[in-house]
Structure to design on (178 residues):
C-alpha cells in the first residue's frame, strides 16, 4: 500500500510539473523592412541579426524554453519577405515540426533614419492562431536603445504568456553581437 501511495504521489507531481512547465517558444530570425532612401546598409543588417539572440536571452533568463529552428527550415517555409509574418498558420506549422508551443515571427521595420520599430507576431502552434502583435519603438541606431527595445518586447511577450520576465534595472545593459 505504501508503494502505491509513493507511486501515486510521484505521478501526480510529474503531472503537475508538466502543467507548470515553461512554454516552448521558437523565435524566428527577424526580417529587415527598410523603407529609408538607403536601405539594407551593413549596420542595419547587423542590428536586425542581433535582435533574435538578445530576445532569446531575455526570455530564456525568465525560464522560457527557447526552441531552435534552423535558418534553412525557416527559409524553406518562407515564400518571400513578410510571408511568415503575415501567415500565422504557416509559422505554426513550422513551429510544430520543432515541437514549439509558440512561434514569434519578427521584423525590424525602419521607416526613417531616426527610428525603427521592433515588431513581433506571437503565434500559438496548437491552433495556429495569432495571439499577440507587439511593437516597440527604437530611436536611433544606438545599441543600448536597441537592447532596451528588446527588453520592452520581451516584457510584452511575457505579459501574454506567463509573467515570468522582469526587465533589468536601468544601467544594467548588456551588448550581444550576432
Amino acid at each position: 500500500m505504501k508503494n502505491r501511495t509513493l507511486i501515486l504521489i510521484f505521478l501526480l507531481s510529474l503531472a503537475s510539473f508538466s502543467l507548470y512547465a515553461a512554454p516552448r517558444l521558437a523565435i524566428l530570425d527577424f526580417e529587415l523592412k527598410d523603407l529609408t532612401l538607403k536601405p539594407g546598409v551593413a549596420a542595419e543588417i547587423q542590428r536586425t541579426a542581433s535582435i533574435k539572440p538578445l530576445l532569446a536571452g531575455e526570455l530564456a533568463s525568465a525560464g522560457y524554453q527557447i526552441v531552435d529552428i534552423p535558418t534553412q527550415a525557416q527559409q524553406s517555409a518562407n515564400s518571400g519577405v513578410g510571408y511568415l509574418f503575415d501567415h500565422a498558420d504557416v509559422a505554426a506549422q513550422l513551429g510544430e515540426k520543432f515541437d514549439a508551443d509558440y512561434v514569434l515571427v519578427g521584423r525590424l521595420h525602419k521607416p526613417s533614419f531616426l527610428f525603427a520599430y521592433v515588431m513581433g507576431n506571437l503565434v500559438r502552434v496548437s491552433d495556429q492562431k495569432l495571439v499577440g502583435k507587439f511593437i516597440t519603438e527604437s530611436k536611433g541606431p544606438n545599441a543600448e536603445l536597441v537592447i532596451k527595445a528588446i527588453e520592452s518586447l520581451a516584457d510584452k511577450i511575457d505579459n501574454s504568456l506567463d509573467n515570468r520576465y522582469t526587465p533589468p534595472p536601468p544601467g544594467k545593459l548588456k551588448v550581444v553581437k550576432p
Observations:
- The radius of gyration is 18 Å.
- Residues 30-160 form a domain with the Rossmann fold fold (CATH 3.40.50.10070).
- The chain has a mean pLDDT of 87.
- Helices lie at 2-19, 42-61, 71-77, 83-86, 88-97, 143-160.
